[in-house]
Every structure is written in C-alpha cells, then in structure tokens.
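Archive maintenance. Older records in this collection stored only the sequence; we are now back-filling the structure field for every entry so that each record is complete. The fields below show one back-filled record exactly as it appears after the update. Entries are processed alphabetically, and NUDIX hydrolase is next in the queue.

ARCHIVE ENTRY
Title: NUDIX hydrolase
Organism field: Dictyobacter aurantiacus
Length field: 158
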Amino acid sequence: MINQLLLRLWRLLRGRPQWYFLWLAHPKFIVGVSGVIFDEQGRILLLRHRFWMQATWGLPGGYANKNERLEDTLRRELREETGYEVQVGSLIRVVSGYRLRVEASYRGTFLGGQLRLDEREVLEARFFHPDELPPGLLPSQREIIKLSLSSNPPPPAS
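Back-filled structure field:
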C-alpha cells in the first residue's frame, strides 16, 4: 500500500521535482548504466519500467553503487529486475547526462535464466527484433541501439 502511494506521488511530481528527489537520495554524482542485450536470434531485450512516464519501454539498466564496476552494475540490475544472466561486452558510448550524471551503455549477450520480474520496478520484459522496436522508446535509446547495431551487427536469426 505504501509502495502504491509512493508510486502515485512519483508520477504526480514529473520533471524537476523527480530529479530533485533522485539527487537527494543518491550520491551527488550519479553513474547510470544501460545495455543493449541480444539473444541468440539477434533480438533486443527491452523492459517496460513502472517509474518511467506512461510506463514506456526502455533498455535495461540502473545506477552504479559506490566502487562497483560498470559491467557488474549492468549484470546486477538485469539479475535483480528480470532474473536473467548476461555477458557484458563492448562499451557502446559514454555521455554526460542531466547535470551531475554520466551514462555508460554496453552491448551484451543474453545467457539465460528464468524470467522473474521485480514488479516494483518492471512491468514487462520482452525481446524485440531491431526492425520492430515498440513505439515510445526514447530517441536517445534508439540511438544507442543504432550505435550497437552499426558497430557489431547481431547474429543472424536461426
């Protein structure tokens, strides 16, 4: 019940107030990590996040803990949010995000695992063919996917 109340409050805040609360709750320098995770058929794993506006689809990822390697952050976040195990591959890009935030994006490979969603954060997880990405995906995330595909195409579909 308290989670439902907090979720409603979070959705009402929008924009600057949300960032302010994130700023208060996290170290003053935030490092975000995301991954373009391919399965054996060349499809990309996307998550529908509960906390994102209108629960849109997006790349899996999260914030790094203090002294945590970025590759370990991505593996941990995927394990926590989906139950999946992944191999983290090459770095796609690093950009400075909003204010005191840096975002690193990696290419990765799905290794397996039983889907167990952390329903507090994720509503749905699904693999999509690169040519059939869902609407509502942020332009910045489409760009990360495009960079991942251009630097190293996925394996051909079986």
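Update note: The CA atoms of residues 49 and 122 lie 5 Å apart. The chain has one domain: 28-151.
Entry marked complete.
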